[in-house]
Amino acid sequence: GAMASASPTAATSQPSLPSGPVIFKTIPYAFILPEIICGAWVWILVAATSVSFPLLQGWVMYVSLTSCLISLLLLISYLFGFHRNSNNWKVLDSLYHGATAILYMSAAVLQANATINSEFHFSSPLYYQLNCAASFFAFITTFLYILHAFSNYYQ
Question: Which PANTHER family does the record match to this protein (predicted)?
Answer without folding.
Answer: MAL-LIKE PROTEIN, MARVEL-CONTAINING POTENTIAL LIPID RAFT-ASSOCIATED PROTEIN
